Amino acid sequence: MAALALTAGILAGCASPGTVTAPPPPPQAPVVAAPPPVVVAPPPPVASAAPMPQDDKVRVALLLPLSGASAAIGQSMLDAAQMALFDLGDDKFVLMPRDSKGEPAAAAAAAKGAIDEGASLILGPLFAPQASAVKPVLAQAGRPVPVVSFSSDWNVAGGGLWVLGFQPQEQVRRVVNMAAGRGALRFGLLAPSTPYGDATLKALTEAAAAVGGQVTRVERYTPGTPDMTSVVRRLSNYDGRKAGLAAERSRLHGAGDAESQTALRRLSNADTFGEMPFDAVLIAEGGTKLREIASLFPFFDIDPAPGRLLGTGLWDEGGLGREPALIGGWYAAPPSEGRQAFEQRFQQLYGYKPHRLATLAYDATALAAVLAKAGGRDGFDPAALTNPNGFAGVEGIFRLVPSGVSERGLAVMEVTRTGSSLVDPAPTSFQPTPSS
Predict the structure, then answer these.
(1) What are phi and psi of 27, to 5 degrees?
(2) What range does the domain containing 308 cover?
(3) Does the residue 141 lie in any domain?
(4) Does residue 282 sit in the same domain as residue 385?
(5) How far apart are CA 147 and CA 401, in angstroms?
(6) Is 257 within a domain?
């Protein structure tokens, strides 16, 4: 596995957009070779190829929103990319930051300009509409120029473009497999009526079937719904279970025997009777909306026992334990150790906390530097980019797959009163574990 390691270096200041060339690495800097690439035929050119500069430099473009509404995110990601450049780049590696302005047309123009200037690889852009706008530029480049975007929208993947962002499908698979190992086979879903919710439902259906289970309850809602009470009520089948309680009390009362009367007394403080319509429920929400939803659970007898509430990467935030109903919930997320070390070092270098997506820029730039050392301008062919063994980055192991999406090794975390705790560690290899 090619390692994208954090090295102890000091980066003075932060560069403005332009062309950045790394200084010669210190003698102790790691040089990690990528595996020999598999022979893959490049796509046939569809236009006259943009001329390549007549030198031995490896040029990598970095498309980020450095102006506009998302400029703060873009600057944080640029700073992270320059950390990786100084950690793993050499004097032949040239990083070319370009402003996508958060706009599709600007992203396309930036991509074309970078290709015309000799870029062999494009990192970014950040948002899906920009990534979609870049794809036609690739088709007209006249030579293969892969794109590793920071988008999490799997719908734009393919055609020479990979999405490195965090995607819900693998998060759902990971947490469902863990819950199934603890006996859950009936799964519920509470999700917004959005493409994200659609993807979560599809992933849950497939993941449940893979473990021999099924999806037994689904509730969707319109984003922005001001009151989630009726949605949670339907999810829990509260009215049906309340009717079941009335029927059971009537039956026991009519029986008249001592055993029935004892059972009747046990139901005196109950609100419902009968099983929940699921063993575990996945909630495809985060932030304030997630807390609002969870606060309703006690009113409808939804049990917050460990492993019964499941979440996606949207749960990977601090402070969820302030809502008691979420304590014990499980979610899948990248391992936190590497990110914490990265954030501490970033803070020391730049004096501010990095945006959550800054790690994507670090890992992508580090990946580019490693592949460039191994193969120069030819180091970015599909076989090298889609190395099945993957790479180890700030967010744990990851790999790009031929379909254009990325896969990650995820941990399962449990919400606690003070933060989160580890339930199951992230894998450190994509190789299957031998059967015991």
Answers:
(1) -55, -30
(2) 168-237+276-333
(3) yes
(4) no
(5) 13
(6) no
- What's the one-letter identity of residue 61? A
The answer to the question of residue 371 being in a domain is: yes
* Interval 77-116: pLDDT, tens: 999 999 999 999 999 999 999 999 999 999 999 999 999 9
Q: How many independent structural domains does the chain possess? A: 2
Kindly write down the DSSP assignment for every residue of 1-34, as one continuous string: -EE---------S-PPSS-EEPPPPPTT----PP
Q: What is the pTM of this model?
A: 0.80
Burial class (CB in 10 A: 0-12, 13-18, 19+), 407: middle
Q: Residues of 50-69 as b/e, b for ≥16 C-beta within 10 angstroms?
A: beeeeeebbbbbbbbbbbee
Do residues 50 and 142 make contact, with C-beta atoms less than 8 angstroms apart? yes
Q: Are residues 172 and 144 in the same domain?
A: no
Write the pLDDT tens digit of every residue in 360-378: 999 999 999 999 999 998 8
Handedness of CA 203, 204, 205, 206 (dihedral sign): positive
**Residue listed under structure tokens 């744990």:** 396
Which of the listed residues 333, 350, 366 is the one where a domain comes to its end?
Answer: 333
Place of tokens 């595996």: 35
**pLDDT score at 24:** 41
Domain assignment present for 91: yes
**Helix axis angle, 168-181 to 195-210, nearest 10°:** 40
By CB atoms closer than 10 A (0-12, 13-18, 19+), residue 434 is exposed
